[in-house]
TrEMBL record:
NCBIfam families: PRK12607.1. Residues 76-321 form the SAICAR synthetase/ADE2 N-terminal domain. Keywords: ATP-binding, Ligase, Nucleotide-binding, Purine biosynthesis. The keyword Nucleotide-binding applies. GO terms for biological process: 'de novo' IMP biosynthetic process. GO terms for cellular component: chloroplast stroma. This is Phosphoribosylaminoimidazole-succinocarboxamide synthase, chloroplastic. Its EC number is 6.3.2.6. It comes from Edaphochlamys debaryana. Pathway: Purine metabolism; IMP biosynthesis via de novo pathway; 5-amino-1-(5-phospho-D-ribosyl)imidazole-4-carboxamide from 5-amino-1-(5-phospho-D-ribosyl)imidazole-4-carboxylate: step 1/2. GO terms for molecular function: ATP binding; phosphoribosylaminoimidazolesuccinocarboxamide synthase activity. It catalyses: 5-amino-1-(5-phospho-D-ribosyl)imidazole-4-carboxylate + L-aspartate + ATP = (2S)-2-[5-amino-1-(5-phospho-beta-D-ribosyl)imidazole-4-carboxamido]succinate + ADP + phosphate + 2 H(+).
Length: 372
């Protein structure tokens, strides 16, 4: 994801990076049937989420988790998660924040719950490959994890030649590069082709912007030992392959994703943060991929691009002091897409929480029950 024409400002740089892997513009797969364009926005509305959940989404707009104020020590606010450092353990609260352009665009009902529960599901499914740091989920939005010393590397795994931003694999390939982050690619590839084999295109995990890096550089710079790299990269590829197989069973293609790993106090390497969530992964619809690809069309997916486009067409989200409020219709649509993907992946019905209780209060009560 090295920038060819590196964006000028750090915000733009970060945005390009985020867009590249789809962390903030991830594809959420579209329901195969009955996706009707909405009247006002032209954004397709997915079907497949129950009427009760759709009604709850509308209701929950006034009870989103945008900020947390838990009576726990050492709070640190990430883009999506608030973490509380308890020493040996960390309490990680996944909020409903939807950010892009380094800004909070909106709070999306149930997004935090979906991300937390999707990640917890995948952590369990992939435990036979590598243990996760997850200890429990004391609340739908909360993960209690072993505190790990995080490797300062993001393990980006890719199965396809795709992406459209300055930092994406396809952009580099199209510009003539045949080597990227230590991986070689043959001539003659087309956008969205399946790669001959999955690859890892690591980046450093920096505050402002992540920089593509090769395994040799990772070791040379002392970010990881050779042995750590060998172990973690092998695990990352195994988890990715497992995810692709599981996704395929559900009619989805797991296109690319990123993982974080760390070491716990015993020195055990664990996967942390999140796995195969709609924020960290790109999914395409399997059923139409071959046909569309052969016809030179983009694969079917549902992404969050529409919300970014809405802001872009109305303001300068990098510069304006105050952003307009995102339309309820778009925010609810985004929420539906998160819920849809959760249900599709896990095979479980989304459990609508009790909307009469403010989420922060519910979390406090649940943490107390868990003795935290
Ligand atoms: N088990 C863990 N031990 C220590 N730190 C953790 C653990 N799990 C997650 N973290 C850290 O918690 C933070 C969660 O923040 P969040 O996911 O909101 O933003 P981010 O990771 O900075 O950005 P992004 O996810 O977009 O890369 C990250 O810094 C992550 O590395
Ligand atoms: Mg994260």
């Amino acid at each position: 994801m090295r920038s060819l024409s590196r964006p000028a400002c750090p915000q733009a740089q970060r945005q390009a990076r985020l867009g590249a892997i789809g962390r903030r513009s991830v594809a959420v797969v579209r329901a195969q049937a009955a996706a009707a364009p909405s009247k006002d926005s032209g954004v397709e509305s997915i079907s497949g989420v129950s009427a009760e959940t759709v009604a709850a989404i509308a209701k929950a707009r006034t009870n989103c988790l945008t900020a947390t104020d838990l009576p726990l020590p050492n709070r640190r606010q990430g883009k999506v998660r608030d973490t509380y450092d308890l020493g040996e353990q960390v309490v990680i609260v996944t909020t409903d924040r939807q950010s892009a352009f380094d800004r909070l665009l909106a709070s999306v009902p149930f997004k935090g719950q979906v991300l937390n529960q999707t990640a917890a599901w995948w952590f369990e499914q992939t435990a036979h490959i590598v243990p996760s740091a997850l200890l429990s989920t004391p609340d739908p939005n909360v993960a209690l994890m072993r505190k790990c010393k995080v490797f300062p590397v993001e393990f980006v795994c890719r199965g396809y030649m795709t992406g459209s931003t300055d930092t994406s694999l396809w952009t580099h390939y199209k510009a003539g590069e045949r080597e990227y982050c230590g991986n070689a690619f043959p001539d003659g590839m087309r956008k969205n082709d399946r790669l001959a084999k999955n690859v890892i295109t690591p980046t450093t995990k920096a505050e402002d912007h992540d920089v593509p890096i090769s395994p040799a550089e990772i070791v040379a710079q002392g970010l990881m030992t050779q042995q750590e790299w060998d172990t973690v990269s092998a695990a990352a590829l195994q988890i990715f392959e497992f995810g692709q197989r599981e996704a395929a069973k559900r009619g989805l293609l797991l296109v690319d994703t990123k993982y974080e790993f760390g070491k716990d106090s015993d020195g055990t390497i664990r996967i942390i943060d999140e796995v195969h969530t709609p924020d960290s992964s790109r999914y395409w619809l399997a059923s139409s991929y071959e046909q569309r690809h052969a016809a030179g069309q983009e694969p079917e997916n549902i992404d969050k691009e529409f919300l970014r486009l809405w802001f872009r067409s109305r303001c300068d989200p990098y510069k304006d002091a105050v952003l307009p409020e995102a339309p309820a219709e778009l925010v609810c649509e985004l929420s539906k897409r998160y819920v849809y993907l959760y249900e599709k992946i896990t095979g479980q019905a989304f459990q609508v929480p009790d909307l009469s209780v403010p989420i922060n209060e519910r979390i406090k009560a649940n943490l107390k029950k868990a003795g935290l």
